[in-house]
Specification:
44% of the residues lie in helices and 13% in strands. It is an alpha/beta fold. The strands form two sheets. The protein has a four-stranded parallel sheet, with helices on both faces. Strand 4 (67-70), helix 4 and strand 5 form a beta-alpha-beta unit. Helix 3 runs parallel beside helix 4 and helix 6 packs across helix 7.
Length: 239
């Protein structure tokens, strides 16, 4: 099962798992954009992972699965001093609450030897972009959720790890660049180039590269790894 599968990293993960011969249930709130995955062989399900009842129904369809990739997430870009309670709660509900309860509901249903990968972010460790503070806080929470469930599910055994991508070339990234560039009185391209100067490898990652790292964490090659937060940042974060 891959949530947030209609676009970005989730989409790349669903496609990579298909290529590896897995049966994939692709989950997203955007039913229209899931259609392309359905045409390629994925089972699809339109779900709002922020809704408790829909999460419960999704979990009941997950008996006997091997893997769960929690990739669904939203971002709200706003100066930190202007964030409202409603905006804070919306981000936490989709990004952090859904991960906690999908791990709780689906983790015990995965077959022994299964694995979960939660999508965190380099923003869980960096505070350089305060216009996304609620998003960063939610991604930091995911690291704690990952550690807790790695202990809770170890006896099954189901492994639980997180990946912390840095700059990734996705639609969410494009929206972030456009929004912040406007407030910084520059262009998205100029702001993007400036950010990448701080990355030792001097570039962003593709969603497909991230999918490769996630596939490793799901695989038996990572069978002795659980409770870890793996940086995938081109060297930007090394702790």
């Amino acid at each position: 099962m891959v949530t947030g599968a209609a676009s970005g990293i989730g989409n790349a993960v669903a496609r990579r798992l298909l290529d590896e011969g897995c049966e994939v249930l692709a989950v997203d709130i955007d039913a229209g954009r899931l259609a392309a995955l359905g045409a390629e062989g994925c089972a699809t399900r339109a779900v709002d992972v922020g809704d408790p009842d829909q999460r419960q129904a999704l979990a009941e369809a997950a008996d006997g699965f091997d893997y769960l990739v929690n990739s669904a997430g939203i971002i709200r870009i706003k100066p930190i001093l202007e964030v409202t309670v409603e905006e804070w709660r919306q981000v936490q509900t989709v990004n952090a609450e859904s991960v906690f309860f999908l791990c709780q509901l689906i983790g015990p249903r995965l077959r022994p030897g299964g694995a979960i990968v939660n999508l965190s972010s380099s923003s869980a460790k960096l505070a350089t972009s305060t216009d996304v503070a609620p998003y960063a806080a939610s991604k930091t929470t995911i690291l704690s959720i990952t550690r807790s469930f790695s202990y809770a599910l170890a006896s099954r055994p189901v492994r639980v790890n997180a990946i912390c991508p840095g700059i990734v070339e996705t639609e969410m990234q494009d929206r972030f660049l456009e929004h912040v560039a406007t407030h910084k009185n520059t262009t998205a391209a100029e702001f993007d180039a400036q950010r990448k100067k701080g990355v030792p490898l001097q570039r962003g990652a593709s969603p497909e590269e991230c999918a490769g790292a996630i596939l490793f964490l799901l695989s038996d090659e990572a069978a002795y790894m659980t409770g870890q937060a793996i940086n995938f940042t081109g060297g930007l974060v090394n702790w």
